[in-house]
Amino acid sequence: MTEGTGRVVCDITVTADGYSAGLNQTEQRPFGDDGGDGSGDALHAWMFKTPDENRAEIDQIVSAKAFIMGRNMFGPVRGEWDRQWNGWWGQDPPFHRPVFVLTHHAREPQLMDGGTTFHFVTDGIESALAQARAAAGGGDVAIGGGATTINQYLAAGLIDELRVHIAPLMFGAGTRLFEGVPPLKLEQVKSRAASLVTHVTYRVLS
Fold first, then answer.
1. CA 36 to each of CA 23, 65, 151: distance values in angstroms, whole numbers, following the listed order
2. Helix intervals (H) in the chain
3. Which terminus of the chain has a lower count of CB atoms within 10 Å, N or C?
């Protein structure tokens, strides 16, 4: 962590075998072969079926002052922006902060209701982090996902705190946390078991 800046944190929900999404993702089934309808409802049941039980963790996810996400998390549009896609979350996304979307295709910033503005970054993960840190004004920056984006930041040594929410199910294949990431030294900061999830927070030491 650079002196005078907030932490770089991330939250990700994974299955017991480490997957954040199954194979065969599409616009209609954004989480692919997830054992259900492809909406990730079982994976994220802890957030939507038992929110009161997990209120502290849910609030923590959206407490950052700026966010970074991969294009796959932002939406299903690939290649050039051939249609106006503004994310999965409707006109008032839950971030209420600047969000920096990693992409290979330039696009003007997209202002949404509630204080969210999507900025599209074409020159890599370090540029996105620099822009997010500037926007955060000394607050925390959250790497929102998905796993491929988080893995890139972990491999580059750019994440300070990793919060993994482990759901009691298995996908067997798909997009996996830690794929392609060299061995890391982690310090467990805290853990808490709830009915549909186990929350584990690690400090990334190296």
1. 12, 33, 26
2. 45-48, 55-61, 71-74, 125-136, 147-155
3. C
Instruction: List, for residues 85-125, the tens digit of each pLDDT value.
Output: 999 999 999 999 999 999 999 999 999 999 999 999 999 99
Separation in Å, CA 44 to CA 68, 86, 167: 20, 22, 8
Q: Position of tokens 């853990």?
A: 191
User: What pLDDT does 4 receive?
Assistant: 57
Dist. CA 62–CA 80, nearest whole Å = 29
Helix 125-136 to helix 147-155 angle (10° resolution) is 90
Strand 66-70 with 141-145, pairing: parallel
Q: Which amino acid is at 189?
A: V
Q: In this model, does residue 8 exceed pLDDT 90?
A: yes
How many CB atoms neighbour CB 156 within 10 A? 13
Q: What is the pLDDT of residues 158-206, one digit of tens each?
A: 999 999 999 999 999 999 999 999 999 999 999 999 999 999 999 999 7
Whether this prediction's pTM lies above 0.90 is answered by yes
Q: What is the DSSP letter of 42?
A: T
What pLDDT does residue 2 have?
52
